[in-house]
Design a protein that fits this description.
- With about 200 residues, the chain is of the alpha+beta class.
- The protein contains four helices and ten strands.
- The strands form three sheets. Strands 2-9-7-4 form a four-stranded antiparallel β-sheet, with no helix packed on it.
- Helix 3 runs antiparallel to helix 4.
- The protein is elongated.
- The two termini are about 75 Å apart.
Length: about 200
């Protein structure tokens, strides 16, 4: 009786210390043993050709910023231009006269302001009169700057260096504000849009 109990206890201990069975014994037996397995990799280079669309980064239409008649054209189709280069010029006699008149008015009011400032310190001019003269001086400066700006707008300039790819300006042609006169395209850099299928 004692020998039978000892054998049963030993069997129980051996069963408890042994490996536990998995849920599927076949899965455990078929699982590959990758310990120490060396996998060799190779890089394969194959030519890849994909259609692409090329775009230029800078391509702009140069429009008239002032209304008037085209007086002269300095750039032709295919000409290379620099940044700020004059492409064409509108008739600007009226603008030049306006600048001359504004400059003369500004100088005249400037003399009046200087005289009023001296007399104000001496007490010969009231504060109200001095302020009115200062206001006229600022107005004359604004009119002078506007006249210069109107004269500058008669110059049609290149917005960046590139090539003239279209020319619509012709001498003697009347243009309105916003009319397209040139198209300037920069030769580089080029942007490529590529579509890659999955």
């Amino acid at each position: 009786m004692t020998r039978a109990l000892l054998c049963a206890a030993a069997t129980t201990i051996v069963a408890a210390c042994g490996p536990r069975p998995t849920a599927d014994p076949r899965a455990a037996s078929t699982a590959p043993d990758t310990a120490g397995l060396l996998i060799a990799t190779t890089t394969v280079r194959a030519p890849l050709q994909l259609p692409a669309q090329l775009y230029v980064e800078h391509d702009a239409a140069v429009v008239a910023r002032s209304a008037g008649v085209v007086d002269s054209v300095m750039a032709e189709l295919g000409s290379r231009v620099a940044d700020g280069m004059t492409l064409a010029r509108l008739e600007n006699v009226d603008q030049e006269l306006a600048v001359a008149q504004a400059e003369a008015t500004y100088e005249n009011v400037g003399r009046l302001v200087n005289r009023a400032r001296v007399m104000t310190k001496a007490g010969g001019v009231t504060v109200a009169d001095s302020e009115q003269t200062e206001f006229q001086y600022r107005q004359a400066d604004i009119a002078r700057r506007k006249a210069r700006r109107d004269l500058e707008l008669t110059r049609i300039v290149a917005p960046f260096p590139g090539v003239v790819t279209a020319r619509y300006a012709r001498p003697g042609r009347f243009v309105a504000i916003g009319d397209t006169l040139f198209r300037v395209t920069e030769s580089g850099p080029l942007l490529a849009r590529v579509r890659v299928s999955e």
